[in-house]
């Protein structure tokens, strides 16, 4: 009888131990579950913050144009883009959070230093300040709040083979005196059978809509080889007016076009230099709210007059050049006034085809890391 009582007492003691172990196990399980929930919350907050940093860096890089104004606009656009994100706890940046470099893995400098020597600036880094994220379940273990930060670097791409909003035309330059960079040039329309220099030709395959929207990248020609349309000077002029004047918000040459299918530039003031245009951009000037930045910048094939065959209308381009359109094309004079930029800058959209002729003058913004 005594032995039986001892056994029953031992069992009651074991039941107490099982209860204690179960309680501890349950607490550990709940703590692990809570920690998992908190970690998931941290990852979500980190992703949100990283997306904001990525968007801000891309917005900043989209403004780079080898000028002081481009650096200023990069800071302004990075800040403006970040403010679009709705955080529970405000995350704001100042110019000190936006730095610049000429090489991806090089030393990053502040905006003021970058503005003093902007020519080679190619990359923008946005570093967001720490953001406190509340801990829901595991506060007793890791504390009530955790800090999360994010950074992103964007910059100019490799040189483009064509940008989307170019016009489907080519420039014919003198053999002895090529079109000079950083200089203004006036080119006139010429009948297809002439190889006169300082003129332009509408390229075959470029209908009115192609000239308007710039679909030269659909041409099925070998690299550098193009063919002019068999047009009169008046027709060259008419089609060129469609593409050029739309950039100033003038659609009279093509009544079917509008700011939706052929957006103007944000700055439409005529007869300004590219430097003045850059300064206006840097100061945040917007003359057309329905416009797109850098629409007045075009990437065109350039061919020497001797490289234009007046019998076959074939022309061989020796390079692509980035030009700034100074004014609308007037009729009947039909001359176009452009400035050969020569500097590296970013445009909203473009494309690169391996093996094609590239222009280091035009790039698109790319997120690097």
What would your notes on this structure say?
This protein is of the alpha+beta class and 369 residues long. It is 31% helix and 22% strand. It has seven helices and 16 strands. The protein has helices at residues 2-61, 68-82, 111-116, 139-142, 208-213, 233-246, 274-282; strands at residues 98-101, 123-134, 145-156, 162-163, 169-173, 183-189, 199-202, 225-227, 297-304, 314-316, 319-325, 336-340, 345-346, 350-351, 362-363, 365-367. A six-stranded mixed barrel has the order 5-7-6-12-11-9. The protein has a four-stranded antiparallel sheet with strand order 1-2-3-16, covered by helices on one side. Helix 1 (2-61) packs antiparallel against helix 2 (68-82) and helix 2 runs parallel beside helix 7. It starts with a helix and ends with a strand. 40% of the residues are buried. Mean pLDDT is 80; it is low at 206-223.
